[in-house]
Amino acid sequence: MEDSNRTAVTEFVLLGFSGFGSLRGPLFWGVLCIYLVTLLGNSLTILLTLANPALHSPMYFFLRHFSMVEILYTTTIVPRMLADLLSSCPTIPLASCFTQLYFFALFGIAECCLLTAMAYDRYAAICRPLHYGTLMNRGACARMVGASYLMGVIAGTTHSIFIFTLPFHSANTIHHFLCDIPPVLRMASASTFWGEVGNLGITIAFILTPFLLIIASYACILATILGVTTSQGRRKVFSTCSSHLFVVMLFFGTRTVAYMRPWAGSSQAADQILALFYTVVTPMFNPFVYTLRNKEVTGAMRRLVKKYLWSP
């Protein structure tokens, strides 16, 4: 009866940047520049892998979808973040918070599953080269990508149901710059035990499990590399995996610390720094990691520039 007489929250106030003061202006321009570089880099990756027939292999098929999801993932967060940096009292309606959290989880989990598919592709290419064409045919690749998006939809829907079926009354100030799971859970007026259990379960199912599958794939790859007799052969095999391995460490490292460390969500400053890193900074790195360290992609880029910009 008491809860029914309390006013239901219709919007949240985002206080993630409230303590930045005069730094909000430089932070706005910094985030904007990083966002534009992210859009340009990932869009260029998509264009290159579509335009060049040499980049139509399964690895680049997965990379193309990964770049597309990176664009959608960062666009879920950054435009509103930029608007909030210019606002003296940034607010977000409850429905918009629900939508942001849903797509944030959807695209984040889809990225996680795509990285797993890319690890399996490397495993098949290095450990089972004679069966690679069968294992990684067009239908198999399409099913892996479809499953990645489906896992994202399931995770986003489940997260949203766990959190937004909770009552929200009175307290409406989120000490964060986005509707992430831990800070929104703290706003609930009822016990969040099952919400936290659900969050942990989804994290284990959709983040930890794919990470373990990637580790298993690389354990097999490492065993194969150690079996190569020449150092030049080992370097060649490792070079095909190094870019993906770097992105995996970056992706899973920040999210594991953010969501699976003890008392995740108890340190607001730590949560915000981690979130700023994996929502803004990390998506900018990925195109550079995959292009600058990849001779096939850089070669395709040079041919594209020569064809359209330097042609007589």
Question: In percent, how much strand structure appears in the residues?
Answer: under 5%
Helix content: over 70%
Q: Span from first to last CA?
A: 79 Å
- Going by helix content, strand content and strand pairing, the class is mainly alpha
Largest sheet: 3 strands, mixed
Mean pLDDT: 83
**Got a strand count?**
3
What is the count of DSSP helices, taking H or I runs of 4+ residues?
A: 10
What's the Cα radius of gyration?
22 Å
Walk across the major sheet and give the strand order.
2-1-3
Question: What form results from the Cα inertia axes?
Answer: globular
Low-confidence stretches: none
Return the string of H and E elements: EHHEHHHEHHHHH
